[in-house]
Amino acid sequence: MASALPSWLMQRYAKFLEKFDGDWFDASDAAKILEDSDQNLTNVVLSELRKKGWLVTELNPEDNRKRLYRLKSPSAVIREMAASPREERPAVFEPLELNQIYCGDCLDLMKRIPSDSVHLAVTSPPYNVGIAYDNHKDTLSYDEYLDWLKEVWAETKRVLVSGGRFALNIAPTGINDFKPVHHDFASQLRDLGMIFRTEIIWYKQTMLKRTAWGSWKSPANPHIIPSWEYVLVFSKDKWRLDGDPKNADVTKEEFMKFSDGMWYIPPETQRNGHPAPFPEELIYRLIKFYTYRGNTVLDMFGGSGTVAAVATKTGRNFMHMDLSKEYCKTADRRVNEAKGALKQTKLLLATA
């Protein structure tokens, strides 16, 4: 049965429909329409249209190593959606409110965020290396992992305002089975049309307890262990984020320091029950450097609530979501503590 398409996919469907209508076509034909020379975006689009039920496929009778595709007509798709059981129809949800902790699946929750409403998304997705999260299987196959997060990136782009930023914290994973996940994520986001602004090196210096040297004191098979992670920064549509200059609150000293792309920030020591929390300093820099006061900041893998807490402390709105009820309870506590500290500061200033 067919299901509704996100806006980025509907745009590609419309291009194909205008060219092919009900005719069969192959991936190279589709790539020409999308002006996609390496066919990466094309493969994503064709796969998603098939999953959503808007396209049928069969083996090419002239070359069974390749496939042919044909679009379903809009009227056929509408009939399928109308005929589907009521419980399978897309639900209509109330939009999410600002400054709230939401516990649930991020893809379900993000669909409730209005388009063009978030100024900065900051997150670090599960790394898929078997970390013991409270309520997440961190051992998907690599293809499943990429496919899942590709959907999250598409929703992220949709909810960002024009000029909005996405700061994605990620690191290469594994030694024996090295996965350049930062490259793969960057390729996915560029295929979605996001502008790759920069990459920040978050130097953590976590080498003190290192034991995995590989071939000790030998060139036979020595191991490089990353003492850093990346923060990949993207923009939607354009480089500039519009806003009132009066609401820019990054100081001269902060701006000069933060614009150096090597950030030495030790890992967080107060874990708040989470195996891999953000240090507050990392989030503080991203929020102050990339947003205005009053902007909205989203963390779709919010964990123990560092982004929500720092957004509160710096006068931004937040949207926090996580699958774990325990992490959401911790996030709620941290946000309330941040609100209490702000009230106390205002009281002291008023009585000074």
Report the portion of residues in β strands: 15-25%
Low-confidence stretches: 86-91
- Helix vs. strand class: alpha/beta
Largest sheet: 8 strands, mixed
Distance between the termini: 66 Å
Q: Level of helix content?
A: 25-40%
Round the Cα radius of gyration to an integer and report it. 23 Å
> How is the largest sheet built, in terms of strand order?
3-10-9-4-5-7-6-8
The CATH homologous superfamily of the largest domain corresponds to Vaccinia Virus protein VP39
Shape: globular
CATH topology of the largest domain: Rossmann fold
Number of strands: 10
Question: How would you characterize the overall build of this protein?
Answer:
The structure is a single chain. The protein folds into 2 domains: 7-88, Winged helix-like DNA-binding domain superfamily/Winged helix DNA-binding domain (Arc Repressor Mutant, subunit A); 100-351, Vaccinia Virus protein VP39 (Rossmann fold), CATH 3.40.50.150. Helix content is 38%, strand content 19%. It is built from 11 helices and 10 strands. The protein has helices at residues 7-20, 27-34, 40-52, 74-83, 106-110, 142-159, 181-191, 252-258, 280-290, 306-313, 325-351, and strands at residues 55-60, 63-71, 100-103, 118-123, 160-170, 195-203, 228-235, 262-264, 296-299, 317-322. The strands form 2 sheets. The protein has an 8-stranded mixed sheet, sandwiched between helices. A two-stranded antiparallel sheet has the order 1-2. Strand 9 (296-299), helix 10 (306-313) and strand 10 (317-322) form a beta-alpha-beta unit. The radius of gyration is 23 Å and the shape is globular.
